[in-house]
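queue> pop job 88
queue> type: inverse folding (structure -> sequence)
queue> payload:
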């Protein structure tokens, strides 16, 4: 890996980034399985511990915080105990929560039950509600207060209601007008039309859904997967985006940049324990790379290396700057 990528990585620490999107609380229930329930053919988990992490868009912020101290989040959190816990976790990590709106709606909580390093089941508690007009105005006002100081904006849309077309249009227009890097992790079921962000990062399934195409079987080599390439080109036109990075799981990533030939980046993962949050890690590092002056190809390769490291960890994990720097030598 070129030395200049290590220099770019060192520059991440001075960057200021805002993450806007659906904030969640990730709960992990850890335990042991020693028998099958007599009530149903399911394992009985004896709980040995619980842990909590910022989830959704908040996990993107958590990933960013490993590289720079200048991270803020924008979204909603309920006035419930889960919302209190989420904000406390963010504040413990020195992540700026001044743009978070507290609302009567319950905080989204995803509970994963883990035994013997395997996820047994996930339980989601959520209510999908779009912002009210008053909440939208408050969110955009908070965004406006942060905008001038930012180097980059990340939108992490999980389809829970925070990112509406009005919010998307307003943020994209402001980012263009002020020359700020804007990257997006889209949600295919929200029908949000993006116009002119610097980069968008869907996964393979999301790309097909957003392009209005039936999901097809993955073909290798990736450069000959005609359906995937067509979905990508459609999305470049639909979203008016120069850089499209499609994550492909064990097959790595596909970078589409303008009219340049497709660039397949093979995965760098050595072993996979848990893919939870790998896309968040990729989005965070891709954005930091672009904001630091990397080309899209360089930023994508940094993101690929970071996500390859994070899937080797259990739970909603992050990659540190030291780990990524060491990983560049592999």
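queue> result:
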């Amino acid at each position: 890996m070129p030395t200049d990528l290590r220099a770019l990585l060192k520059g991440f620490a001075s960057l200021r980034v805002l993450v806007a999107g659906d904030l969640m609380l990730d709960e992990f229930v850890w335990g042991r399985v020693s028998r099958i329930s007599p009530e149903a053919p399911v394992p009985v988990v004896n709980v040995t511990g619980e842990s909590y992490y910022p989830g959704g868009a908040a996990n993107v912020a958590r990933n960013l915080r490993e590289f720079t101290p200048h991270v803020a989040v924008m979204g909603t959190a309920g006035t419930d105990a889960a919302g209190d816990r989420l904000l406390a976790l963010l504040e413990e990590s020195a992540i700026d929560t001044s743009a978070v709106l507290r609302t009567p709606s319950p905080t989204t909580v995803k509970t994963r039950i883990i035994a013997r390093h395997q996820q047994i089941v996930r339980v989601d508690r959520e209510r999908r509600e779009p912002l009210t007009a008053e909440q939208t105005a408050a969110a955009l006002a908070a965004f406006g207060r942060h905008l001038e100081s930012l180097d980059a904006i990340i939108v992490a849309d999980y389809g829970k209601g925070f990112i509406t077309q009005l919010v998307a249009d307003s943020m994209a227009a402001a980012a263009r007008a002020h020359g700020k890097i804007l990257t997006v992790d889209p949600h295919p079921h929200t029908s949000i039309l993006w116009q002119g962000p610097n980069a968008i990062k869907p996964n393979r399934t999301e790309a097909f859904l957003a392009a209005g195409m039936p999901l097809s079987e993955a073909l290798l080599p990736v450069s000959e997967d005609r359906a995937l390439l067509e979905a990508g080109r459609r999305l470049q036109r639909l979203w008016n985006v120069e850089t499209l990075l499609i994550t492909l799981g064990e097959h790595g990533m596909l970078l589409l940049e303008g009219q340049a030939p497709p660039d397949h980046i093979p995965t760098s993962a050595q072993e996979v324990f848990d893919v939870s949050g790998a896309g968040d890690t990729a989005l965070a590092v891709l954005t930091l790379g672009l904001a630091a002056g990397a080309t899209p190809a360089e930023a994508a390769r940094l993101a690929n290396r970071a996500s390859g490291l994070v899937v080797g960890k259990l739970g909603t994990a992050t990659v540190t700057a030291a780990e990524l720097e060491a990983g560049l030598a592999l």
